[in-house]
Amino acid sequence: MSDSYKFGMVALLGPPNAGKSTLMNQYLGQKVAIVSPRPQTTRNRISGILTEDDSQVVFLDTPGIHRLRGKMNRFLLDSAWSALSSCDCVVVMLDAALYAAKPHLMDKEIEPLVKPVKSSGLPVLVAVNKADKLKDKAEILPVMQKIAEMFPDAEVYPISALKGDGAPELLGGVMKHLPEGPPMFPEDQISTVPLRFMASEVIREKIFYSLHQELPYGTAVEIEQWDEDAERGLVTIHAAIYTTKKNHKGMIIGKQGATLKKIGTAAREELEEMLEMKVHLELWVKVRDNWTEDTGFLRGLGLGE
Ligand code: GDP
Ligand code: MG
Questions:
Q1: What 3-state DSSP class applies to 189?
Q2: 277 CA distance to ligand 1 centroid (A)?
């Protein structure tokens, strides 16, 4: 590890479809580490950890920040914005190809970001994405001009998150704003494990609600299979619900499987929101005596030491 190791957090903001997740994957590549340091606060926040020899950068993706409505969601929205306060800089991600074709959308889609971003007081970098889609590169100029007016203090980077063009330059810009500090996460933090844990928590929560808040003691959820098909935007998840008693199994399954079906539907909907992918979810209920005593099994569930 070098003496001047850098650690920092970057908030990734932008309208849906701007390319936030694509950028994260571009940076994280095979090492993709989409995790949540604090599962209970991450309903609408997914982070990716990029660890290099001299730096560790945590990207906080804020999916759905623009789609939230209603009172509960107002709260979530506030919490999403408050995530900014723990960050060292903000990357605003915008779809340049969209705005080159439809400049009138810029006010509607970008304006709501301007004030909260500004009041965060953080350095702002604007990634003008999907540059590869523009046939004539000059088309990007009026878009850049308008962005410069909206974010006068920002550094603006034309990029293609998909192809990677401009991505190193943007990352270099981000690095300049990160403080020195040691890494907060192990460098081999594996991608899907914490995400799987979050998914099992979502399923557990739905069991809890479906059973009218009487989650039988000793109910656990284990993700048995997790297959991502990025091309189709589909993740197939097989999860086993463990109970210690046969009658609990019956309760969870319900009459003609009605309760389990309800659990599955609610969990799938939330997982789709969380993962921003289509989810194919299969649930099984299994009885396993004394699993709560079995430390090896607990470890497999991400619980215990
Ligand atoms: P998010 O909603 O901001 O996370 O956006 P996504 O990363 O899910 O991307 C939305 C869509 O835009 C996907 O179909 C991506 O493949 C596409 N996309 C993202 N970045 C680029 C880019 O740089 N060029 C092109 N051509 N497509 C992109
Ligand atoms: Mg996304």
A1: coil
A2: 13
Ligand 1 neighbour 243 (Cβ under 6 A): no
In the block, which residue shows the tokens 């289509």? 278
Look up the pTM and report it. 0.65
Domain architecture of the chain: domains with CATH:
6-175 (3.40.50.300), 195-300 (3.30.300.20)
14 lines ligand 1 (CB under 6 A): yes
Q: Contact 13/92 with Cβ under 8 angstroms?
A: yes
How many Å lie between the centroid of ligand 2 and the Cα of residue 18? 8
CB 285 within 8 A of CB 272: no
State whether the beta carbon of 129 lies less than 6 angstroms from ligand 1. Answer: yes
Summarised one tens digit per residue, pLDDT across range 188-231 is 654 434 677 778 878 888 888 888 767 677 788 888 898 888 78
Q: What pLDDT is attached to residue 233?
A: 84
Give the number of other Cβ atoms within 10 Å of residue 43's Cβ: 18
On whether the CB atoms of residues 215 and 207 are closer than 8 A, the answer is: yes
pLDDT level of residue 150 (50, 70, 90 thresholds) = very high
Nearest Cα residue to atom 10 of ligand 1: 17
Q: What is the mean pLDDT of residues 36-57?
A: 62
**Bridge partners, 7 (sequence order):** 56
